[in-house]
Task: inverse folding
């Protein structure tokens, strides 16, 4: 009895599912297919400004590593280094983490290291890295309050238009002609330039002229 009950319940569930599925499909056909707008996202090239930057400084003599926080426009002394942060940019949340800092680095003693002024990137430390005679400097991240440049508002998503596939129109009584030839028909262009399907039936013989018709009178 238990097996029969389970089979009966399964049959009832299948019938209900088919009925509900048919109702959903009929409602979809009645309302039509609606296009879904894509989610609005920031462009991959957008940046967000911060007023602080965290720098990693390694001393070459003993490989000591220290972290220094820089504020925009302030000059910070670290050993014989003089560091000035001009700008710090980072990617907004939801995008791959990346930071870029524009800094100016000078050494206060005659170590032979030229003044550095340019950009440093967290994802590419070799690009714009400072490698002096006594110190190596790299950017770690941006910090502090948000400043210009700021990312603008999210773009308004536009709903795509769904194109409907058209079919050639054919009259119900068979007198109308479709806009394109069907399979098995060859397009023939007559003397007057009109084109149309060529019949595959043998040509109908013309009726023989009767006596006294179609003949000219002799003078």
Result:
């Amino acid at each position: 009895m238990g097996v029969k009950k389970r089979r009966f319940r399964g049959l009832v569930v299948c019938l209900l599912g088919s009925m509900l599925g048919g109702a959903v499909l009929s409602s979809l056909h009645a309302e039509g297919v609606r296009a879904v707008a894509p989610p609005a996202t920031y462009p991959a090239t957008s940046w967000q400004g911060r007023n602080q930057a965290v720098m990693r400084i390694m001393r070459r003599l003993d490989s000591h590593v220290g972290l220094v926080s820089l504020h925009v426009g302030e000059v910070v002394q670290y050993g014989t280094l003089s560091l000035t942060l001009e700008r710090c940019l980072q990617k907004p949340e939801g995008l791959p983490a990346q930071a870029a800092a524009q800094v100016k680095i000078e050494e206060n003693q005659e170590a032979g290291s030229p003044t550095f002024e340019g950009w440093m990137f967290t994802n590419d430390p070799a690009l714009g890295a400072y490698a002096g005679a006594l110190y190596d400097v790299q950017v770690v991240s941006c910090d502090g309050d948000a400043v210009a440049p700021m990312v603008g508002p999210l773009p308004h998503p536009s709903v795509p238009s769904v194109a409907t596939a058209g079919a050639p129109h054919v009259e119900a009584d068979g007198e109308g002609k479709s806009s394109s030839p069907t399979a098995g028909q060859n397009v023939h262009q007559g003397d007057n330039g009109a084109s149309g399907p060529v019949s595959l039936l043998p040509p109908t013989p013309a009726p023989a002229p009767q006596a006294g018709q179609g003949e000219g009178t002799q003078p």
User: Anything to note?
Assistant: Residues 48-147 form one domain.
